[in-house]
Amino acid sequence: VFSFFFFGAVFCLGLSFTYHTLSCHSPDMSKLFHKLDYVGISLLIVGSFIPWIYYGFYCRRGPKITYISLICLLGVASVCVSMMDTFSEPAFRPIRAGVFVTMGLSAVIPALHFILTDGLDSMLKENEFICLLTMAGLYIGGAAIYAARVPERFFPGKC
């Protein structure tokens, strides 16, 4: 199950590395790998949630399959949107950040389910809710930095 996380992380970093390395090759290569960079972000988010859902609902097959299917479906939708030409336009920067934040916030649904069925105390002690919140905070923080154009905003033309 952790392979999903490692797969997502490796592909996210690999596609990001490839984009930042090849973006100066040509405009067409830059556009392609810019889109693939977003695909990598989607894969990382999906891969991050699968282990948490799998172990959080380990003894409950129905919810486990439902929530893993939900995050995978959102991931596929995000990948499809990421590959659209208009989505990579600069005007859509805040929308791109919003798509990834929304995808990440979809974890609220299984988290609420777990709290309603097992209680908040169980969620905090058994289901590593603090780790989920930390992950969500880091992803939302990254999306905010991206949407705010940091560091480009402070050093125009140098980043």
Bin the strand percentage: under 5%
Distance between the termini: 37 Å
Which term fits the overall shape? elongated
Structural class: mainly alpha
Question: Describe the biggest sheet?
Answer: none
Low-confidence stretches: none
The domain tally reads 1
| Count of separate DSSP helical elements | 7
- Series of secondary-structure elements, N-terminal to C-terminal: HHHHHHH
C-alpha-based Rg, rounded: 17 Å
* Count of distinct strands: 0
Mean pLDDT: 89
User: Share of helix among residues?
Assistant: over 70%
Structure description:
The chain is elongated. It is 77% helix and 0% strand. The chain has one domain. The chain has 7 helices and no strands. By secondary structure, it is mainly alpha-helical.
List the helices and strands and how they pair.
Elements: H1 2-22, H2 27-56, H3 61-82, H4 93-105, H5 108-118, H6 120-126, H7 129-147
GO biological process, one term: adiponectin-activated signaling pathway
GO molecular function: metal ion binding; signaling receptor activity
Pfam family, one: HlyIII
